[in-house]
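User: Teach me something about this protein's shape.
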Amino acid sequence: MFLIYTISGIVLGSVYALTAVGYSIVYGVLELVNFAHGTIFMVGAYLMYILCTLLGVPLLPGAVIAVALTGAVGILYERIALRPLRLRNLPKFCFLICTIGISIVLENILFVTMGSEARLYPTLREGTYYSVLGVNLSFVQLLIMLVAVVLMAALVIFLKKSPLGMAMRATAQNRTATELMGISVDAIVSITFFLGSALAAVSGIFYCMAFRSVSTGIGAQITQKTFASTVLGGIGEIGGAVIGGLILGLTESYTSGYIGSEYRDVAAFIVLIAVLLIRPSGLLGKPAQKKV
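Assistant: First, the predicted structure itself:
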């Protein structure tokens, strides 16, 4: 049973990690606490549901289109709502309040159009299981772990090696110097929001595939878990987001298995508080240095 709970926790933690990585990318470039990220997770999941279930698009093309459209939604709300605030150099709390408003607007649009009831979500190869170390895993569970590893490795290579990735890291360090080097900060920010939103869509699609349902309530749930994973690992650190997501997923799985599912959220946040008492900046976070 321990092995079963461990693998289930890794699957759940992979979803949290993918979402938290998208959140960390945006924070790393803009130092923005984006409370709309969990709602974007839900938007991506619903877009695939609409395409595949209501419009009859095959699953794989539907998933690709849904991820691309969700990335476009990220670019759109950054340009309409956040860029004007950034150009006016308003305080960070204005951005925070704006993302809360964006989250409420998007959630209510889906609530009005799709309703509040949970809907049966399409999945891949339902009923197909594989034995891994004596544990039967569904095709979707294996796919979640594989895709999470591939996407996170590809993201690290992209940020370290590609010109766009280096421009994103330069923008995170010093936006003024980046502009003086001839790099469009606005374009880099748009790319950052596209990547973050696309990763949220991928994790939202897999999450709903694994649990076979989608509802407007998942946005609020995943916002809490994403923020907790990011803070636990070290906000702004991609590696920290991965570790934080896996720790949170494993904690919830072990708690559900050995104590009770009603205590899973409590246990996860107890672990978060305990880690922050020892390392206030998170597991991989670095203490912020301020000039006096």
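Now, about its shape. Residues 243 and 256 are 20 Å apart (CA to CA). The chain has one domain: 2-106+130-278. If you'd like, I can walk through any region in more detail.
User: That's plenty for now, thanks!
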